[in-house]
Amino acid sequence: MLAPRHGQRLILACLLFAYWLPLSQAQPGNDRNQGLLLFGEFGELCTMCEAVLMCEESLAAPEYAAVPVSGDFTLYHVQARSFWSQIATIWEWFIANFQEEPISGHQRPVRVFEVASAVWGSPQAAELQMELEPALLSIRATGTVTTIDRRTHQRFLNGAASGYCQRLPLWDALDAIEHREAAGK
Amino acid sequence: MSARQPPWSAAWIRQHPLRFLGIVLHLVLRTLFAIFWLAAGVNKIVTGWLHTDLVERYFNYRLTELHPDSFAVWYLETLAIPLYLPIAWVVTLGELYSAVGLLLGWTTRRSAFVAFFLLFNFALGGYYDASLIPFFLLVFLFMAYPSGEWLGMDRSRKHRAARAA
To answer: Which CA distances in Å does B78 have to A5, B22, B50?
Structure first.
């Protein structure tokens, strides 16, 4: 059996090795990406996390505290990554140990709600492509390509500027969506 | 010959080709798992887990992503955040111990159990998704079979123990 002091030496050697190993420059929350829409202090929106974006025809990024009760706007309910996309994060985490830049992009499901004068349309299922370089969110749904600039929060519909977006407080926004869906049934 | 101690001889391999393939696959998976955990443990040291408030900030940030009524929020607020520094040490040293143990086949099953313990606590703390499933399956596999006796330091440990007995 391995003598205890041999085990301790082995652990000590591993720790020293680890301190000197020039393996990783990875820092949590790459500074250059801080402030991007849906990018947090510690990186991209987590695999199981959801988010709600609201976009409207405005001249600057809106700053609502909750889902507006009136007006015309679009809600994007960004959902958790799919099962296989979550499995793929094993590779992303592994690579993150060795490189400074996070993995650039991934897809996740999104539901799009068009709201006109407080009347909610049926949700459309689509795929959201999240990219860091260039910092864009892209959604393709029923012939429309929606692109949101993650730095300026500006939205483009089929390439034409179409207002600005904000991230809404999650749990209130989800409650509002659930309430509206229940009311619509 | 026992499956627990393949002699790695051509004759044994010819006699047990499937068993041999299974053992090789098991050892490959063990090595990959160990490299992953070694990288994760080293990365935690390099990014300052052991001597900064990074982990506390990490846990506090996670609170904003979890449903306020979830068990993970209670776990983080009651246990993980108040004890963030000891937890950072346990996780980092645990990952390094598991990685070294599984790489070298040294206290292999105990190393796998430590990995299981860490994974279980990650899940309790709200750091769960489908990517944990393969990890759990692998640690169960490593705990179930004495792979350190197939290839690793456990083999010589066992021989020494047998001689001493």
So the answer is: 36, 43, 20
From the list A14, A80, A98, which residue is nearest B39 (CB)?
A98
Residue type, B155: R
Amino acid identity of residue B21, one-letter, is L
Taking contacts as CB-CB distances below 8 angstroms, the residues of chain A near B47 are 24, 26-28
3-state SS, residue A131: strand
Q: Cα separations (Å) of A99 from A26, A93, A96?
A: 6, 10, 5
**Per residue in B123-162, pLDDT tens?**
999 998 999 999 999 999 999 999 999 999 998 888 888 8
Nearest CB to A10: which of B57, B100, B128?
B100
Contacts with B17 (C-beta within 8 Å, 6 or more apart), sequence order: none
Closest CA to B26 of B150, B133, B135, B120: B150
Tell me whether residue A27 is exposed, middle or buried, using C-beta atoms within 10 angstroms of its C-beta: 0 to 12, 13 to 18, 19 or more. middle
What is the C-alpha to C-alpha distance for residues B142 and A185, in angstroms, rounded to an integer? 50
Q: Is the ipTM of this complex over 0.85?
A: no
Half-sphere exposure of A54 (CA within 13 A, CB side): 26
Angle at A18 between CA A14 and CA A20, to 5 degrees: 120
pTM tops 0.80, yes or no? yes
CA dihedral B58, B64, B67, B71 (to 10 degrees): 30
Q: Do B129 and A23 touch (CB under 8 A)?
A: no
Contact B63, B73 (CB under 8 A): yes
User: Residues A123-138: pLDDT tens digits?
Assistant: 999 999 999 989 999 9
